[in-house]
Structure formats: structure tokens, C-alpha cells
Amino acid sequence: MLTINTIIADKQLLFCEGLKSILNQHPAYQFNFIAEVDQSDQVTSLISTQDVDILILDLDLNGIDGLALIPSIRSISSEVKIIVLTTYSNYKFVKEAMKGGADAYILKSSSVAEMHSAINSVLSDKTYLGPKVNITPPSGFKINSEAKSKFEDRFLIRRKLTKREHEVLSLITQAKSNKEIAKELFISDQTVGVHRKNIMKKFGVRNSVTLLRYAFENDLTS
User: What is the pTM of this model?
Assistant: First the structure.
């Protein structure tokens, strides 16, 4: 039986244990679990130093999120098979993941058989999209018709911001003024002000005090 060196990158430790049990039910492969990690930098370190066949990757990780991490992994290794296993079915995320170099994208609501099918496909050098996963808008889908939850998780919140807005927000949470932020990022005070307004608009807050509270409540300080 062929042994598959595997890394699981997911913040939910109990889920990781269940996933290992599911993979161990595969009739054709034996899995050697190198590590279960929740930090994006741990993923790149392991890919750089270990012989990894499959990476099973959630999008919501500590550090760089999974979508941004995929191209970094691809720059390190073209051989490792990347299976995105997540709760996020948004077609934009699917498209970005596959464009970045993922080999498969399936949802955590998938069956054991679907997980095994994804494994079989990527190890045969084929891509795999699970049921209810679309790389383009589903038929009849309207961009403005998607209901927005009052409570969004950290991953979805962070994906609202550009890289520069993340940098500005991080410095705002350090109680730095627009001038101090401008100096550190080598941009003008006016540009910082525009970024601040855009961040507040995206988060639906009206002043800096509320912005700070929102940032700390949702762990957006880094």
C-alpha cells in the first residue's frame, strides 16, 4: 500500500483528528501524518523541509489566510498536492484558490466518499471540485442578492481589506496618528486618511473609537 506524506493545516484540532480517521479509511493509500498545524508560516516551513505529498488546507488560518498562502506554497513546491477543505463555498474564493495553484476544493460538509475522490483525483494529477463548489457564479446567481450575516467570522472580515488597508489598520490599533502611519508606510497623510475612511466604510463604523473596538473584538490587530 502506497504511503502518502500528509500535512493538515486547520485551526480546529478536533476536526483534524476526525479527518485523520476518515483518511485512514481509504482502501488504496496509507497516510503518514507529518503534522497538524494552524499557522501559515508553519505550513511553508514544513513544505520547504519535508517530503510532502498532500497538503489539506483550510482557508481560515492564523497568519496569512489560506487563499493568500497557496501561491507561496506553489513557489516552494510544484509537486505537493493542495486540497482546500473549508466551509467557504463562495465562488470567488474557489476561483482564487484554483488560480493560485490548488488541486482540489471541497467543503467540510462533504461525505467520506467525496474526500476519498478528491484524494484519488489529485494523486492522479487531476483537479477536483466537490459538490456545491463553483468556480463561476451559479446559474441564476445575482451578486447583490447574497444575504449578509450580521455576524461574520474573522476570515471573511479580513478578506474585505486590501493589503495596504491591513497595514494601516494594524498601525491604527497601535494608536498611531495619520502622520506617524504616513511616515512608516512612506505615503502621504491624505492617503492614510483615505485608507482610514475606506476601512471604516467597509466595517460599517462611523468613528475611530468604534473602529478600534471592532478591530480588537474581531482580532484584526495584526
Answer: 0.74
